[in-house]
Amino acid sequence: xQMHDLASVAESFFAPGKGILAADxxxxxxxERLSVRGIAxxxxxxxxxxxxxxxxxxxxxxxxxxxxxxxxxxxxxxxGKLFPDSLAARGILPGVKVDLGTEPISASSTxxxxxxxxxxPERLAEYKKQGSVFTKWRAVIRIDGDLLPTAxxxxxxxxxxxxxxxxAQNAGMVPILEPEVLYEGRHSRQRARRVMADxxxxxxAVLDEHAVDLTGVLxxxxxxxxxxxxxxxxxxxxxxxDTVAVLLENVPAQVAGVxxxxxxxxxxxxxxxxxxxxxxxxxxxxxxxxxxxxARALQDEALDIWKGKPENVPAAREAFLxxxxxxxxxxx
Length: 332
Ligand code: 5MM
Known about the structure:
This protein is of the alpha/beta class. It has a single domain, classed as Aldolase class I (TIM Barrel). Helices cover 45% and strands 15% of the residues. The structure holds 2-O-methyl-1,6-di-O-phosphono-D-mannitol (5MM). 2-O-methyl-1,6-di-O-phosphono-D-mannitol (5MM) binds at residues 22, 24-26, 29, 67, 101, 138, 180, 261-263, 294-297.
């Protein structure tokens, strides 16, 4: 795929009122999501969990893309169609998470480094054959007072993001780069903003060194929030002001677009904050389009209703569609 094709795929995620469903929970995380709700965690129940969302009628009104876990590329919905085919048939781009999760950066550290570069070119070729048109890699950046993150952890994580981005573009698939600054912690919103600034400025410097074409790249970012355990509730305007400022200061205008993760915010918080951010970005003349790429904020309400029971599927899908409509309206 030529670079201009990657850029036009990247642009298509930002069709009016549309965004991305992150449904790329690894087996470990999917098991956690189900077991915490008392739902069986077998491969069949995990398939039904995906089908609850992918099989919901009308999602194409709100979704431009879905990020899948690699196993889901080969799974089928109750309609007998492979998930990537069924999504693509409704005009929703199927993509895949290509990182292989995180591990501690050293035996004595709580900082994490993302794995998955070793056999990446081979896996990318396979995912493409299976219908994936874009990819995602998540790096995790933990804040602990002034101690973490270390500059070394940020640098190693963004170096891997840059190598991944180049490989994905070489394979003809749009990379979504997700340097997630965790919401967990007691830090202030100002500290979150400073860490985001460090991570983003380092990321774009390293992407430049690796000659990654920014017109075919999406950034997936957290919002600037006071830590979940800080006891401080930010107003939507405070979140919007700091989030848009840190993005304007550190994200080059050539980047194809910016998408937000929800990071453990409630669905209402993630919706309300997105609305304030979009409004602020517009008034500040931000150069890139914005949208959502939520996992928990889109799925949690439906999962709570579903409980793994077929008779609850219609009500759960209704809740999912209701949340999608709210998040979509936040973009206007
Ligand atoms: C759904 O969670 C994704 C995968 O995480 P694991 O590899 O740990 O299973 C994650 O990449 C997700 O796409 C983003 O973090 C956004 O999810 P939230 O829930 O923060 O919106």
